[in-house]
Design goal:
CATH architecture: 3-Layer(aba) Sandwich
CATH class: Alpha Beta
Shape: globular
Largest sheet: 5 strands, parallel
Radius of gyration: 15 Å
Number of strands: 5
Strand content: 15-25%
Distance between the termini: 25 Å
Helix content: 40-55%
Strand order of the largest sheet: 2-3-1-4-5
Number of helices: 10
Structural class: alpha/beta
Order of helices and strands: EHEHHHEHEHHEHHH
CATH topology: Rossmann fold
Length: 160
């Protein structure tokens, strides 16, 4: 299973859209378990891992808070974005100022978890994904078989 994660408004949905356009079977957290982010903090590890294991797709997008509770040898794609731009997008989308310190801490703790647990991680830069999609998507071909063909399909179908 491939886990796509990142801060809110960091570009995970853009990447998921590109993967779907390329024929990768992807679920979003909202589709499989419509839970508010606040409730994710309360979910116990076993429940989250049950949700992940029951998902029948190749890839799943999850909030950062969920990604740190996932056990097993999954591969991770962490989508990153310039924090100032990310915070501005959050403020615009949710009509309130984001709690920047908590979001930065969440991102830092997730990176620490991925490193400590020796997870297989690919980092995708959202701004570079928009500027040069082919170069950023090339990083993913190491964890998704036949992804080179997928990149060609994405280029035909979508303009990021």
């Amino acid at each position: 299973m491939i886990i796509v994660t990142g801060l809110p408004c960091s570009g995970t949905r853009t990447l998921v859209s590109a993967l779907k356009q390329g024929g990768i079977d992807v679920s979003t957290w909202d589709e499989i378990k419509p839970v508010k982010i606040e409730d994710c903090k309360k979910k116990i590890k076993e429940e989250i891992n049950k949700i992940i294991s029951e998902n029948q797709k190749d890839c799943i997008e999850v909030p950062l808070i969920v990604s740190r509770k996932i056990e097993g040898q999954h591969k991770f794609i962490l989508v990153e974005r310039n924090l100032k731009t990310c915070f501005a997008s959050i403020e615009k989308a949710f009509k309130k100022e984001p709690h920047k310190v908590l979001l930065e801490l969440n991102l830092r703790e997730t990176k620490r978890f991925l490193k400590k647990e020796k997870k297989d991680v690919i980092y995708i830069d959202y701004d570079l994904l928009l500027q040069n999609p082919e170069k950023e998507l090339e990083k993913i071909k190491n964890i998704i078989p036949n992804f080179s063909e997928t990149i060609n399909e994405i280029k035909k179908k979508v303009h990021l």
